[in-house]
Give the backbone structure.
Amino acid sequence: MNYCSECGAKLVWKIPCGDNCERFVCESCDKIHYQNPVIIASCLAHFEDKVVWMQRAEQPRKGSWVIPAGFMEKGETLREAAARELFEETGAVVRPEQMMLHTLGNLMYTDEVYIVFRAPLMSETLACGSEALHAALFSEDQAPWDNIAYPVMEDYVRRFYRELAAKSFTIYIGEFRESGNWIQNIALGLD
Ligand code: ZN
């Protein structure tokens, strides 16, 4: 970030008055340009013992598999964002009122907050969108673990398959740092 989006003046990297960390500050119009973590919303859409996955059509990690997820847009609720991403990339439809919280992940190395819901799939019909090469329903045995886009996902997705089999779900909060592993520090029993 070099120039102010409000007035076009050159930005200065400094601690604003009354603050305690450095920010991009416009000394012409006084606007402080905050940079905060972004929210990524995702949904584990399930049918019997299977979960909806998609194969990435775009870089990075083109050809690898993920659970659909994407950036939350302004004006959306979390559930709307997760349902939209799921539908755009796989054609899978879930009902917002059936979406339950599953995992909160703090990705410290990318400054992202990952919020994962779970919801039953309304129909098995899938149709992949422009960002997907394929959309598919996989059981745990069929899932492409050896070609997963983000290894950090394996932990919570495998956990979800176990929960599906047991029909008993929890909410997890995890933190992931570049040098370390996913830490499950809270597990709340739900149903
Ligand atoms: Zn300015």
